[in-house]
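2024-03-11 09:14:02 INFO worker-7 job=invfold-0412 stage=load source=structure_tokens
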């Protein structure tokens, strides 16, 4: 039994209709990209907040702990969709690149040009090395368990070393007002911000100093352990959102 499929409804658009259809597709793609950039940037701003915003808040204790933990959420969810549906090992890198685009737009236009803060004071951190390793481990292993353990831990452990060349200069001690402080703290004193006067208190507090001043490695390893759990959780969240469900016709 042969079936004739030469119906006009199956013919692709040609000419002007095809051009308009492609234009709408490109428009939807661009709008979806900006929506994704805005949603990830909003999530990052609400969860990480000042720890990754001001240069004097980029301390050795909470900055390497909170930033990778909240930054691995969207990459894990997008990896779940792009790998299981399309076999594209680029979910984490795409997310981090989108976050950097939105962050740089905000820092330059809203805080540098509008509020006159120095761009060095609001430099965003980078998570691209950890995202590249996360995508590479998923591509080579094709395993959620291996990616969560090795990739999630690498995402957190690579954060502080990859950002140290960018922000190490701000930890140089200087003498100011008969006292000694870092360049980052000097930024905080010179450029006063609204809200609670957090620039007047010590940002880095806690009991990690008890372990011999090694606050950053302990915070990084703690973040690595939590990133393993966070990656697995958001992988299944992304898988749940990407599942298509149908209603049975009565």
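2024-03-11 09:14:09 INFO worker-7 stage=emit residues=250
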């Amino acid at each position: 039994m042969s079936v004739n499929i030469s119906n006009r409804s199956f013919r692709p658009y040609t000419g002007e209709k095809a051009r308009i259809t492609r234009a709408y597709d490109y428009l939807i793609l661009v709008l979806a990209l900006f929506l994704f950039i805005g949603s990830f940037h909003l999530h990052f701003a609400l969860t990480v907040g000042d720890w990754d915003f001001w240069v004097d808040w980029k301390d050795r204790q909470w900055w390497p702990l909170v930033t990778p933990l909240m930054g691995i959420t969207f990459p894990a969810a997008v990896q779940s969709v792009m790998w299981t549906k399309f076999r594209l090992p680029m979910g984490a890198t795409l997310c981090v690149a989108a976050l950097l685009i939105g962050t740089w737009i905000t820092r330059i236009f809203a805080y540098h040009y509008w509020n006159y803060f120095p761009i060095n004071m609001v430099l965003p951190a980078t998570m691209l090395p950890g995202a590249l390793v996360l995508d590479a481990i998923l591509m080579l292993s094709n395993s959620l368990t291996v990616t969560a353990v090795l990739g999630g831990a690498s995402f957190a452990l690579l954060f502080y070393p990859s950002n140290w060349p960018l922000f190490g200069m701000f930890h140089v001690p200087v003498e100011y007002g008969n006292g000694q402080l870092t360049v980052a703290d000097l930024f905080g004193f010179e450029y006063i911000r609204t809200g609670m006067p957090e620039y007047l208190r010590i940002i880095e507090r806690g009991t990690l100093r008890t372990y011999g001043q090694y606050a950053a490695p302990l915070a990084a390893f703690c973040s690595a352990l939590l990133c393993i759990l966070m990656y697995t959780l958001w992988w299944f969240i992304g898988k749940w959102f990407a599942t298509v469900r149908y209603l049975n016709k009565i």
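2024-03-11 09:14:09 INFO worker-7 stage=report msg="The first strand starts at residue 173 and ends at 175."
2024-03-11 09:14:10 INFO worker-7 job finished
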